[in-house]
Every structure is written in structure tokens, then in C-alpha cells.
Design goal:
Elements lengths: L1 H16 L2 E7 L10 E4 L2 E4 L5 E5 L3 E6 L6 E5 L5 E4 L9 E2 L7 E2 H4 L2 E5 L1 H6 L5 H5 L5 E5 L7 E5 L7 E5 L2 E2 L17 E8 L3 H4 L6 E7 L10 E9 L3 E12 L3 E12 L8 E15 L2 E15 L14 E17 L3 E17 L4 E14 L2 E5 L5 E9 L4 E18 L2 E16 L2 E18 L3 E12 L3 E15 L2 E12 L3 H5 L14 E14 L3 E19 L6 E22 L2 E16 L14 E9 L4 E10 L2 E2 L9 E2 L2 E10 L5 E8 L18 E9 L1
Length: 711
Amino acid sequence: MKLTFSFLFAFSILTGAGARISGTIIDPSSRPVPGAVVECGSARATTGDDGRFAFDSSSCEATITKDGFETQQLKLEPGGERRIALRIAKLNERVVVSATRTPTTIEEAGVSANVLTQGDLEARQYQPVFDMLRELPGLTVIATGRRGGLTGVFTRGAQRTGTLFLLDGIPLNEPGGEMNVAQLSSGGIERIEVVRGPESPLFGAEAAAGVVQLFTARGSSETNVPHGSLSYERGNMKTDRWIANLNGGLASRLDYSLTGEQFHSIGMFPNDYFRNTLGTANLGFRIAESTQLRGVFREFDSIAGNPNLTGFGIFDRDANGEDRDSALSLRLDDTRGSRYVQRLAFGYHRLRDRFNDSFADGPFQISAYVKREAADRVYLVGPGEGTLVTSTQSTFPFPGLTISDRKNLDYQGTVNHSGGALTFGYEFERQGGLISLTDVTRTNNGGFIHEQYSVGGRLFLTGGARLERSSTYGNKFAPRGSATWKLRPGTFVRASAGRGITEPSLLQNFARESFYVGNPNLKPEKTTTLDAGIVQEFGSRIRGEVTFFRNAFEDLIAFDSSNFPSTWSNIDRSWARGIEVSATVRPHRYVQAFVGYTHMNTKITRAASSVGWELPRRARNFGSTWISFAPRRWNLMAGGRFLGERRDSDFVFGANRNQAYAVMFVSGSVRLTKHISPFFRLDNALDERYMEALGYTSLSRNGVAGVRVSW
């Protein structure tokens, strides 16, 4: 009996305590994660370059940690090989996907970039995306009116068509790059990445000057009990909004996140209303340890009144715009061994934009004081400061319908090797639309390759190129390269160069009207960029960055009326040069402050007119600042932004300069209980009167207050 007991005891040690637990830690793109720490009871292991770990232990509750990723807890069992995917931390500001198509720190990617985390979105009470982009260096946001008015983003002096917007990899721009960001809500979004510089080598046409990528919120397959939130807010101008979210998982294989939202406001003027209804779904299914299928769907339906040039006293009482925007992606991620990751994705985007206008309005007898200092410096001023100019204006009905869609299929492979990773792929896209009452189509085929390489952990090199073939403009080559040198811990110096392209719009290629026609021989617009910068960090408390950039814009497309019928031609050329400065300071664990400033010079060097003038609506000086106090139960944030004087056109009195302005905001929230959090936000707190675009009065002081319930 004693011998039998001893044998069983020894056998239990060999088969229990000595059992082997092993696996591989991967990132969201299925690349191995080196340096992750796996703790399982008293056992502890660190993953190697291939992301693998192994130790002897019985089944246990493991904790996995790695800087830049969310901490994960799960049960590990002996036997078999587990593949564990970590998610980028929701509060991580230094890891980006949009710069290289794989998760990489901003410094190693060699780019100028900013990340708005879920914490940033929540602190700002989930404001529209364009309002948060205003805070970032290098970006100018101009809205023609108030909520729902046409709103464009100019990156480092480029055209508003030069910034590509992505939703989980789906292009949201119309073919040709046009993008009205007025309806882009941050509801259902957990992360926004902004990369400044040409990204056409990775993403093709329309990424000539930068990329803004929105990542939808995900659930967790390890959470079987659903979680969610519901918020409601109300403010002046009869403004109200609700947002609801439900997320969770099932059977350790399925994860889901569902979001619904509606915003409504009557605005400041007659026919100034705006309603936007939005739905987002993100569903993931783990087919096997190394294979996952994910689908994302997002659609909004909006209607906005168009009261016209209210700043000049011109009112259109019936015009409005109706938009329906749908985006869908299906993506299969698969890992073959420890070094090769592949992805197959399908994307679809459709925009239906209808402008309704049935009646003429006016005539309106209007006047303004105008001060002329030079041909390119004509200002609207106060009484007694200039010459009184009167005008009679009327509005006339001009309804229209625009329908466009994009379907793309792309394959991406990533080979992980010692010192870095090689990413390559192929993308096919079919673009279509309704132009001059005719269905038109064109296709793009693009192949790309991109290498990341680290030399001794101090020199980080990236380089790549894309060859794009279009059925309209033929072949175009877009290269990009960068180098980052880590001088010492916390100090990085980088330099980069690249080329981006923006293809013509469908209208510019295919229009067939009585007085103007499209030009099938248009070349894509070309942006050549050089930039250099330095980043200095002092621990986790201070981070400063200074970047110099130079953009040269060639083959710009302009409307050419020198012949009949009129058409579009590649006749314009210009440049933009500047410096971006930003700093983030954390003097206390509850206190954080930010300041960002951009100084930029622009010049038109070739055009039918205005040669030597500044580019329109690009201010020479602009910036923002804010400070937040965030103890455990409450959050208070205050800040402001300014936009300097800039060239513009009012199309009525002959003014071509727009005055500088500055506005302030305050927002806050308090967690009364684990589940209930009241909040508020006050914009344009000092009630500044200004026009982002001449003639279009911007929103006066406005505020909302509400409550968020979560479970």
C-alpha cells in the first residue's frame, strides 16, 4: 500500500505540476508580440521574437501584459498550443496602424501622427470627429455654416481632397477625394489615428497629404455577459442626442459591438436644422486559433437645411441636403506559422447625396463696409472703417443628385523577420457613379510593398512604394521612405520623403453637360513631401515635438473656361511650407495639458489667375490648447483654439481676406455611481462672432448637459 501511494504521488507530480503550457502572443494584425509577460500563478514567462512562451504549470488564471496593449486575463490549460491576440490599449497614444498597415510606434514608423484614444473621445463627450481634428497640428478644418454644413479638412496646405478618411480600412471619400466630414460622428468609435504626410504608397490615390482612420468599437469574446451604455443630452437651439451601445461575446469565439445614435438641432436661423441618425455594427468570429473573420457595417442618414449666406443677410428658406452613407467591410485574418500573417478584405462604400431646392428667394438688399489695402487684401470691416458697398442678391433653385460607390478587394501579407517586417499586397477597386444622368465606372489596380527594419534598436528605417494602374490615367508610381535615429532614451530625430497622388473625380472625368464636359485625359494631382522632426520625452510627464515640412503640389486640377464647352485641366501648381510644434505635459497624475501650434506659408506658383497669392482658406498661423483635471470620480477640461487671418472669397462684396478668430470650450463629467455619470459641454463659451468661411455665420455659444448610464 505504501509503495502504491508513493507511485501515485510521483505520477501526480509528473502529470500535474510538470505539465507544459505554451502558446503565442499576437497583435491585432496577427503579428507576433515579443516581450509580452505571461504570469500564471507562480510561473512567469516572457515571449521571444516569435511571440512564443512556455512554462511548466497546471491549469491557472493567467495575466498577460505588454506596453501599448490591453492587459488580458484568461484561463490556460496544459497541452496544445494557444494563440492569444492582444488589443491595442484604448488609452495608448503612441502605437498606430495607419502609418505602416501594421501596429507600430509612431517613432519607429518615422511619421508625424496623433492618436485620439477612447479616453480622449469620452473626455470631450464624443464630439463630432471634425471638432476633435481642429485640435491637431497641421490640420485646418473649415465649415461653411453650422451643424451639417459642408466641412472640409486641409492637411498641411493640401487640397481638401488630399486627405483619405478610412473606417476600419474602408475608404469613405468619394472617388476623387471629396469628403464632407460634417456627418462624421465619434459615436461607436474607440480610436482615431491621424497621419500627416503622403500615404499613397500604402493606400493609393486620395492619401496624398495624410490619412485619418476611424476604428469602430469592438466587444470581447471572453465576456459572455453583455455590457453597454446609454446616454442622452439636451441643449439650447433644441439640440438633443442619444447614443446606445451593446457589446460582449459568446462561447469564446464571437465578439460584437452594436451602436445607435441620433442627433437633432433646429440651429440658429430659419431652415438651419440638422438631423443625423447613425448605426454601427462590429462582429468578429474566431474560426480557429489562427484564423478570424470580422465584419463592420456603418450607415448614417442625415438631412440639413441650407439657409445660404446668413452672415450677409441672404436666406434660402427651403433648400436642404439629404445624405445616406453606407460602409461595409468583411476581413479574414490568418496566421501561417510564427512569421507569416495574411489578410483578405472586401470593402464597399456608397454615398447618395441629394440637394433639394424648389423656390427662388429674394431679392435681398444687402450692404457691408469694405476696406481695400491691395489686390489680394480686401477686408470686410466695421462701420466707418471702409467704403460702404451695397448689393442686390437673389437665390435660385438648383437641385441636384450625386450617387457614387466604391468596391475594393485587397490582399495583404506580412513577413516578420529579425529586425522588422516586410508588408506587401495587391488591391483592386471599382468606382462608379451617376454623372450627367449616366452610370459611369472606372477601375484601379495597385500593388504595394513596405519594409520596416531596425538596426541595433536605435536606427529605424522604413521604405516602400506602390504602383497604381488606373483605367483613366494609366500608371503612377508613389514611393516613400523614412529614417528615425534614437539619439538617447527619449530623444528621436527623424526625416522622411514621399509622393502622394489624388485622382480626378468622376465628374471631372465623365461630365457631359451643355456648357461643360469631363476630361478623360486628366492626370492625378501630385504631392511631393519632405519633412524632418525631433521628439523629446522626459519620462512619462513631458513630450514635445517639432516638425518642419515642405509640400509641392503639381498637376492640380482646375476648371478651365478658356474653351467651349469648358472642362477641367491640370494647370495649377503651388507649395506649402511650415513648422508644427506640440507639447503634452503631465505635471500631476490627475492633470494633463496640451498645446499645439502650426505656422505655414503657402503660394500659388502657376494658375489662370492669383499667381503669387496664398492658397485659399489656409491660415498662416493656427493652434489649440487645453488642460484637463481627472481625479478618480470626475473630469474637467477647458481649452481653446485660434485660426489666423486667411485668404477667402465672399462672392458678393469682393472681399478676399477673412479675419482671425479664437474660441473656448469647457466640458466635464462626474461618476456619481459605478453606472451613472452626468456630463456637460459648453462650446464657444465667450460667444465669439466669426465666420470660418466668409458669408457663413458660425455657431454662437452653445451647450449641452446629459447623463450616461453604463453596465
